[in-house]
Amino acid sequence: MGFFNNAKLEPTPELAPLTKERIKATLEASSWSYHVDSDGDIGSGWDHGVIWFFTYGNQAEILQVRGIWDGKLSPDDLPQALDVVNEWNCDRLFPKVYARINDEGQLRVISEHTLDYEHGLTDEQLNLHVNTGIATSCQLWERLNEAFPEAAAAAAAE
C-alpha cells in the first residue's frame, strides 16, 4: 500500500491515569485559582457561575466538569428555562444542560461535560477536557444571562 510507505509513525503519548492531582496541575498551568472542599472535590469560581471537577467510577476514571450558573430562578420559570435548555441541547454537542429544583426550592441550571478515561489520558487530553468544560459552560451562562436578566443582575449583586 503505497499510501503508508513513507509515513513516519510518531510514538504514542503515555496515557496516565486520571487523578485529582493532574486536574489541579492543569488548572495551575493556566494560572486558574481553585479550592478543594471537605470531600476533596475541586471547585473554581468564574464570572456568572462555579465549575466543579468531579471524578467518578471504581478507579476515579470518569471526569465530569460541572458548571452551576449563579442565577437563581423561581420554579415558575421552569417552562422558559426548559426552552433555553432544550435549545442549547439541540444546537450544541456539549455540555449537557439541565434545569432542576434544588432543596431550597430554587430552579438551577447545570451543565455537565463527562468523559470516561478508563485507559488513561494524556496531559493534552486533560487540558482539552477541562478547557472545553469551562469555555462551554461560560458560553451557556452568557445565554442564560440574556434570557434571565433579572436573575443575572441579582446574582451579580450578591
UniProtKB/TrEMBL annotation:
Alphabetical list of Pfam families matching this protein: YbjN (PF10722)
Native species: Candidatus Phosphoribacter hodrii
Q: What is this protein called?
A: YbjN domain-containing protein
